[in-house]
Design brief:
Oligomer: single chain
Distance between the termini: 29 Å
Largest sheet: none
Helix content: over 70%
Shape: elongated
Order of helices and strands: HH
Length: about 55
């Protein structure tokens, strides 16, 4: 939820940000997406295992 709130706020002020700041945010979003997808996989496996028990 925090990520979504930050992204919404970024979209609101994006026109006022410098290009360098927008590029840095884009890089961080990619980094976050890769971390989130890695951790989500382990969580899903645990959910599936728990539901079978």
């Amino acid at each position: 939820m925090l990520y979504e709130a930050l992204d919404t706020r970024k979209n609101e002020v994006e026109k006022d940000l410098k290009t360098a700041d927008n590029l840095k945010i884009a890089g961080l979003k990619i980094k976050y997406a890769s971390i989130a997808s890695t951790h989500r996989g382990g969580t899903k496996v645990k959910e599936n295992t728990d539901s079978k028990q």
